[in-house]
Amino acid sequence: MRNADKHMGSILRRVKENGFLLILDFDGVLAPIVARPRMARVSRRTRACLAKCAAGGRVAVISGRALADVRARVNQAGVWYAGNHGAEWRMGKMRGREKLTRAACAKLSEARRAFTELSRCYRGVVVEDKKLTFSVHFRALARRRVARFSREMRSISKQFTNFLDISEGSEYIFNIRSLESRTKGDAVRLASRCSLAKAVPIYIGDDATDEDAFRALTDGITIRVGRSSKSAAKYYFSTRASVDKLLRNLA
Ligand SMILES: [Mg+2]
Question: Which one from 25, 69, 186, 207 is the annotated catalytic residue?
Answer without folding.
Answer: 25
